[in-house]
Thiamine-phosphate synthase
Amino acid sequence: MKCDKKDLLLYAVTDRNWLHGETLYEQVEKALKGGATFVQLREKQLDQEHFLEEAKEIKKLCKQYHVPFVINDNVEIAVLMDADGVHVGQSDMEAGNVRKMLGDDKIIGVSAQTVEQAVLAQQRGADYLGVGAVFPTGSKDDADDVSHETLKAICEAVQIPVIAIGGISKNNVMELAGSGICGIAVISAIFAQSDIEHAASELKILTEKMVNND
């Protein structure tokens, strides 16, 4: 399964901080109903066994909605449960090595903060880039801020699709118009909202407008 630009429009990254008695599965389904076009399962605390179990369930769900499903960081789990791909950060395994483990038909996303990192990730076989944080964010402790000039420069320097991540909400998404990105990755803008389906739907409409404003 290869990465299509339009699949990256509204990229939902999971977080179990806001479950409030629901399961992650239920919340992901609401995001998909609302129009999420891509799902990344991000688990920092779960042990391998539960992570694997959850990943298999959510993969099935994404398949029903014809939405790509990738695993954050954990290449081993992605291989074991045959995810559509994996997303790695700069401090994780390098894209070329991930490709060797996953095979040619899987999606590899790489986080980048600079033009140099972006170009290198493309050379090593990344299918798309996640660039950020484009706004201040509470979700990632180590997120480096990326200026809108840098975001634009990265989009101009690579041929692969670029999505912005970090602190994006319905209130600021339009500020990214003209940068060259093909979509946004969000966590709290979907999963921390009281009505997840509505939040995803609203964000998708705004993101389409922002991307088409380029």
